[in-house]
């Protein structure tokens, strides 16, 4: 009986202890419940602060850094460049470019002002780049009437274009990106663009020469005094179309000037250009060369740019470029001289 009594007593103690724990737990649960009911707003604030602490560096540091990285990794290729309506202080420029990106993000790039320059030099002009939705491959068309930021820099640029097989142009600006509901992100737009140049006009040739003489008849001298006409073939390996105006070039043999050539209203297009030319030459001096040093009538001719004029105004940026380039050409004048009866 004593053993049974002890067992019952122990069971009662254990039961009391369990009841005490339940009471304590209920009290604690009640406190927590009352706390949550009274201070739920404080808990939300704390949770919001924790979330902001995590998200702010992502939104304002990590994502903009990723955006700048992806923009830097993208490429820009000029597929067409048209320079028209030239004047001494400006041009009409149309640039068609293709931007390529491997990024999985496709933000909208806001419109911005970009400077174009030769590496290591100040911009020669600025263009307004329109707002663009970036995709894996995006065509961007820039078309502006522009005034030169620096005429000297634009002169140097055209010399590089004339004398180079390929060259590099920098495009630099600052803009903002928009991606979904995220805040606008400030980025630097810096692109290095490699383009084909005019390669010194290598491959230029003159054909279909015809000597003009007299004041009447089918072969009379032109009103400006031109006494030689023909076709000039000028290769243009670049994607550039250039309105050069009226272009004149000096002709020389063995360092002696023999005359000038005019290409009127010359628009140099991509690919091979065949255009009419008219020249004023010293026929007597040419005949002298044929009679002495070059009896085969093939004359080693040096052609150097002289002037580029549009609407009566000199385009010094083109003039400096064509003056910097000398073209060596073996010019066969035999057929033209024979047709004119000047040689047998």
From TrEMBL:
Keyword annotations of the record: Membrane, Transmembrane, Transmembrane helix
An annotated GO cellular component: fungal-type vacuole membrane
Segments traversing the membrane: 40-63
Keyword Membrane among record annotations: yes
Compositionally biased residues, Basic and acidic residues: 1-10
UniProt keyword Transmembrane helix, yes or no: yes
Region (Disordered): 1-27
InterPro entries, sorted: DUF3712, Tag1
Protein name: Uncharacterized protein
